[in-house]
Amino acid sequence: DKEYFKAPGWVFKPDTGGGGSGIYGVMDKNKVINDINWWKKRKKTYVIQPMLTNPLLIKNRKFDLRTHVLVTSVSPMRIFVHSNGIVRFASQD
Predict the structure, then answer these.
(1) Residues forming a β-bridge with 77
(2) If residue 11 lies in a helix (H) or strand (E), which one and from where to where?
(3) How would you list the strands of the sheet with 24-26, edge to edge?
(4) SS3 of residue 69 by DSSP
(5) By the 8 A CB rule, do 49 and 41 touch?
(6) Are 10 and 24 contacting, i.e. CB atoms less than 8 angstroms apart?
């Protein structure tokens, strides 16, 4: 999709693990394409997401919300949201 390649850069994240291990950024569209092919040859799966040009910040810090939901029906829509979740903030501006 051409819109996807208008991003200022992309973040590659392994689909396994956590804690920031294996995450890296790519600023060049051609390197994105080369990296995708490289990972495909190794039968490894990465999540690739465009970098946001204007992310939502709280007190100048990036954040993310994690919660668990269970969708039991889409028609009619029935969703259960777990009462526990987490909010994480970046440690630096």
Answers:
(1) 74
(2) strand 10-14
(3) 24-26, 10-14, 46-50
(4) strand
(5) no
(6) no
